[in-house]
Amino acid sequence: MAQEESANTAKAQAFAERLLTILNDGALCLMISIGHRTGLLDAMRDAAPSSSAEIAARAGLSERYVREWLGAMVTGRIVNIDPARNRFSLPPEHAAFLTRAAGADNIGVFAQYMRCSAAWKTRSSNVSKKAAEFHTPDFRGFMKSWRKIAGSPCCHRWKATFCR
Hints:
Elements: H1 2-38, H2 40-44, H3 52-59, H4 63-75, E1 80-82, E2 87-89, H5 92-98, H6 108-124, H7 137-150, H8 153-162
Antiparallel strand pairs: 1-2
Helix pairs in contact: 1-6, 3-4, 6-7
């Protein structure tokens, strides 16, 4: 009996860790979406290690919010930091999949889908199940974003790779 309880505890702990990973990765996906949408990832591509103020200036954004975004991206190991100089950089190996220069390899495009999907699902969960009520401006915005993503070279490459 004690052995069974120990196994159940280990399974419960493993599942709890998996859920925390899902939550953390979901939040990181939204941060990637912000970086793609605002051009922060593009502003960091090929740049020397920079302060949050320098990155904000290149992207035309508020330094305060860029600093907070960088904190999440460093925690998620997407962006590197030199803590002694407080300088941030996007490794070329990461930029190869997160910037517009990546073309069809830009996975950052798909982060937009997750952001749009989360926003639409949040709003749609508050309406009744009548089909007519799902044709709201929010849903049209979601579909417009999805059509843009679905028509991208990245999406075609993804479908060819994973949807066989």
